[in-house]
Inverse folding.
């Protein structure tokens, strides 16, 4: 298989399992922070199981002229919500831990606002050499599954959702 | 049928159709604003078709003590992004137009930041008497479907996604 294909229902089941594992760790988040735009759908699914508010942050690797940038930067941050982070237990959500650069960037931004604790949950972790690292303040890191370093096709990126289903079923 | 049940793939197809209708109107948004948390998943799906950045706003009907409030208020707003709204064409996204109060609230908040234009797209509009109204500045309002005033079960609220599929299939 050259690429991974997931259906929405696959993702929903992975999120449910992640939610159960979060509960098992004993970590009780006050709120989740969703890294946009890949984290929006997993974060909304997770809300059904953990029932915590979602703060959304936008992270981009392109500039205003749509040119690629080497490092991530914020396109939406949570100025108004900073007071909601201080002293709180944050569960940070994204779809995939690829190079780990985005995750490290987000964690470091969140740490500046002095949360009580940060845990990280991603749908998928790619087994590869990472350019970024998880800061030591983060004690809990959960991945729904470890994947080989192949292209991942998420259902929300599909133009034709029926073709996505067929590919995910190996047809 | 007492309730409506939708699968993720139903929603994905509705979003695709909505995207096509947005294009047909000639309205070319600079960015989308997703009303959280119901609008997060439709907005992320829509991004695949319209390829515009998403700003997320959180709207709640409960206060810090989790008590119900009669009117919506913001739990995350887009302070940093206000300059991104001014003079821009905004497509506002939510999952359902129920009482229309949330939509009106969001539109009025957005209008304060002087966008060039606002269009509204919702997955579903409930045919009922509305407590809120769409301000006259909004020239384009699109709903993926009009529904009777029944409870709508969205897939992201399902604990058991297989049961949701079965209910949606009428089993």
């Amino acid at each position: 298989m050259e690429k991974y294909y997931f259906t929405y229902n696959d993702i929903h089941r992975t999120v449910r399992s992640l939610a159960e594992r979060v509960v098992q760790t004993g970590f009780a988040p006050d709120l989740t922070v969703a890294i946009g735009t890949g984290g929006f759908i997993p974060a909304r699914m997770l809300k059904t199981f953990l029932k915590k508010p979602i703060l959304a942050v936008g992270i981009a690797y392109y500039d205003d002229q749509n040119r690629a940038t080497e490092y991530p930067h914020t396109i939406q941050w949570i100025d108004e919500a900073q007071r909601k982070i201080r002293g709180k237990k944050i569960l940070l959500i994204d779809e995939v831990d690829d190079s780990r650069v985005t995750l490290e960037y987000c964690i470091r931004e969140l740490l500046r606002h002095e949360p009580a604790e940060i845990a990280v949950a991603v749908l998928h972790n790619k087994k590869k050499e990472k350019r970024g690292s998880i800061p030591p303040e983060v004690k809990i890191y959960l991945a729904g599954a470890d994947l080989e370093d192949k292209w991942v096709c998420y259902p929300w990126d599909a133009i034709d959702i029926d073709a996505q289903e067929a590919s995910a079923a190996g047809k």
Observations:
- Helices of chain B lie at 8-25, 40-50, 82-85, 101-111, 161-168.
- The domain at 3-168 of chain B is CATH 3.40.50.2020 (Rossmann fold).
- Chain B has a mean pLDDT of 90.
- DSSP finds five helices and eight strands in chain B.
